[in-house]
Amino acid sequence: MSIEFLIEARAGAARAGRLTTPHGEVETPVFMPVGTLASVKGVPQEVLEELGVEILLANTYHLYLRPGVEQVRKLGGLHRFMSWPRAILTDSGGFQVFSLNDLRKVSEEGVTFRSHLDGSSHFLSPESAMQAQIGLGADIIMAFDECTEYPAEPERVRASMELTLRWAERSKKYFEEHKNEVPWNKVSSFQFPVSGELEARNGKPETGNSERTQALFGIVQGGMDLALRKESAERTIEIGFPGYAIGGLSVGEPRHVTREIVEATVQHLPAERPRYLMGVGTPEEIVEYANLGIDMMDCVLPTRAARHGLLFTSEGRISIKQAQYAGDESPLDPNCGCRVCRRYSRAYLRHLYASNEVLAQVLNTIHNLSFYLDTMRAVRHSISLGRGARFLSEVWSRAKL
Ligand SMILES: [Zn+2]
User: Fold this and answer.
1) How far apart are CA 222 and CA 202, in angstroms?
2) Angle at which helices 346-354 and 358-384 pack, to 10 degrees?
3) CA atoms of 88 and 149, how far apart (whole Å)
4) CA of 387 to the centre of ligand 1 (A)
5) Of the candidates 356, 358, 359, 355, which has an alpha carbon nearest to the alpha carbon of residue 344?
6) How far is ligand 1, taken at its centre, from the CA of residue 17, in Å?
7) What is the pLDDT along the chain (401 residues), one digit of tens a residue?
8) What is the phi/psi pair of residue 4, to 5°?
9) CA–CA separation, 138 vs 175, rounded Å?
10) Is 137 exposed, middle or buried (0-12, 13-18, 19+ CB in 10 A)?
11) What dihedral do alpha carbons 143, 33, 251, 245 form, nearest 10°?
12) How far, in Å, from the CA of 311 to the mean position of ligand 1?
């Protein structure tokens, strides 16, 4: 078994589903917090559990450089290393490598790049990206793709899409030949280091099962060209994956273009497979994309914004650094039930931020994540009632300041 996906309710194009992974169930549509270096910056794993996080994203590129895939693999894989018993998804490293602009060189074989840490030279190919992701051992891993830059000439977009398709085939071939090498598949009796506490809290204990494998998702590219997106979707589906991602968006294009591409691409993806939109968005946007039939999303926005004092609330965005909050005894968001809003005032949060206290980043991140997760739960509830996320989208656009 790798994953199973069951759609439980529909409302228009939107779906409420249940994704079963080797490390637990994920209710969809889902927002996946980003834990770049096997850590959601500032938030301990037990708090993520309390927030109801069912799946996390980690970045292969960063973990490959530090602490190194082999180190994580020897320690039993990411789940055991970071003491996280629930599902994990890793990206292929491609997107980060392509963000290195001046430090990379692309060939048919793969990408040569220089580490942003020490300038050392590395090479990532579909095969080595699969090898790295198998060693890290996330439940869902991604094919190695080329994220096409924006804007780009039509010939360049096509060539890039064709390269991604060839790399998708190579990714799948390597994965099929090596999928049994995932670290948690080798352990006969899998135990988390915290003396069974995590298993107790999260249901059934982890046991080695030779049938459990990771799931490899394909990625649709094709730039901002609707015809190429359709072709990329069809040919990626021909290769055959248990789930499909839409990549190459949020790379600087106007938001209405992102929406148009998502809406058009989703129609070419198989209804019974999970659909993952990579690297989006604001609270309003994640509601909108769920409404278009997207099941999985990730974004650094809630965590990164939190560290800069930008907080999402049911009454609009708040920049907590502003002096107007210095004497404000009200909770950050009166409609939020998170541990931060239940306990602390805006005045205290403002003081922490202004004083550059570490706790400011911790508390701000917890609230923003809670807000995103609550938003997705509300969307799912709304879909289950047959109302669709559009209802919520309208609520949001009214709330947005
Ligand atoms: Zn809150």
Assistant:
1) 40
2) 130
3) 27
4) 26
5) 359
6) 26
7) 799 999 999 999 999 999 999 999 999 999 999 999 999 999 999 999 999 999 999 999 999 999 999 999 999 999 999 999 999 999 998 888 888 877 789 999 999 999 989 999 999 999 999 999 999 999 999 999 999 999 999 999 999 999 999 999 999 999 999 999 999 975 444 445 444 445 444 444 444 445 789 999 999 999 999 999 999 999 999 999 999 999 999 999 999 999 999 999 999 999 999 999 999 999 999 999 999 999 999 999 999 999 999 999 999 999 999 999 999 999 999 999 999 999 999 999 999 999 999 999 999 999 999 999 999 999 999 999 988 777 776 666 665 54
8) -130, 145
9) 13
10) buried
11) 30
12) 9
Query: Interior CA angle at 350 toward 349 and 351, to 5°?
Result: 90
User: Rounded to the nearest whole angstrom, what is the distance from the C-alpha of residue 305 to the centroid of ligand 1?
Assistant: 14
Instruction: Identify whether 91 is a catalytic site residue.
Output: yes
Q: How far apart are CA 330 and CA 274, in angstroms?
A: 40
For residue 335, the CA-to-ligand 1 centroid distance in Å is 8
Q: Which two tokens stand for residue 94?
A: 């491609």
The helix/strand/coil state of 2 is coil
Per the residue annotation, which of 139, 298, 333, 374 is the catalytic one?
298
Cα gap 360→320, rounded to integer Å? 10
Per DSSP, what are the bridge partners of residue 264? none
Residue 220 CA to residue 236 CA, distance in Å, equals 7
At residue 178, the 3 state secondary structure works out as: helix
Note the residue count of the chain: 401
Residue where the block lists tokens 């306990």: 343
**Confidence (pLDDT) at 31:** 98
Give the residue among 290, 298, 248, 285 at the shortest CA–CA distance from 266: 290
Give the torsion through C-alpha atoms of 328, 333, 335, 339, to 10 deg: -100
CA distance 237 to 242: 9
Structure tokens at 351: 């003081």
Nearest to 43 by CA among 344, 347, 366: 366
Summarize pLDDT for 280-330 with one digit per residue, the tens. Answer: 999 999 999 999 999 999 999 999 999 999 999 999 999 999 999 999 999
